[in-house]
Amino acid sequence: MCYSHSVHIVSWKDEALTLRVIRTEVFINEQQIPEVMEWDEFDAISIHVLACNFDGLPVGTARLLPDGYIGRMAVLKEWRNKGYGGAMLQKLLEELSNRHEKKVMLNAQASAVKFYEKFGFKVFGNDFWEAGILHVRMILLLN
């Protein structure tokens, strides 16, 4: 459920349609990721965040896997660089902190590395290709 300019933790069961619309637009339509690679068994067991604009319209989503891996970070094109990605990431980091997790990892698209570095993430390992897009593994040690 969207409220004006907010980021909420939501369940896949309750918000799958909304989350799918955002991810379909960003990953499948815009980035040309094959649909078969986008949907997996982890959606049902992950924590999801939903970002909404000032009008209460859904504009972004991300998920946190049970093992503390962040993924599927997506903000609709017209809403990028307006703070929604950072707000979603912050919400997930708060959730991890509440769980007393020691670290968080993610696979960042190479074009997004600087975004994650602003939050303290560090690159580790070698670059790799996934779905035709260059990625790098990143880690953040939590207090």
Do you know the CATH topology? Aminopeptidase
Overall tally of domains = 1
The CATH superfamily bears the name: Gcn5-related N-acetyltransferase (GNAT)
- CATH domain class name: Alpha Beta
Helix content: 25-40%
Terminal CA distance reads: 31 Å
Q: Tell me how many strands there are.
A: 7
Low-confidence stretches: none
Strand content: 25-35%
Main-sheet strand order equals 1-2-3-4-5-7-6
> What count of helical segments does DSSP give?
4
Mean residue pLDDT: 95
SSE sequence, one letter per element: EHHEEEHEHEE
Architecture per CATH nomenclature, i.e. the level-2 architecture: 3-Layer(aba) Sandwich
Q: Which structural class do you get from the secondary structure elements? A: alpha+beta
Largest sheet: 7 strands, mixed
Radius of gyration: 14 Å
Name the overall outline. globular
Brief overview:
With 143 residues, the protein is of the alpha+beta class.
Question: Describe it for me?
Answer:
With 143 residues, the chain is of the alpha+beta class. It has one domain: Gcn5-related N-acetyltransferase (GNAT) (Aminopeptidase, 3-Layer(aba) Sandwich). It is built from 4 helices and 7 strands. It has helices at 12-30, 35-38, 84-98, 113-117, and strands at residues 6-10, 47-52, 58-64, 69-75, 103-109, 122-130, 133-141. The chain has a 7-stranded mixed β-sheet with strand order 1-2-3-4-5-7-6, sandwiched between helices. Strand 6 (122-130) and strand 7 form a beta hairpin. The radius of gyration is 14 Å and the shape is globular. It starts with 5 loop residues before the first strand and ends with a strand. The model has no long low-confidence stretch (mean pLDDT 95).
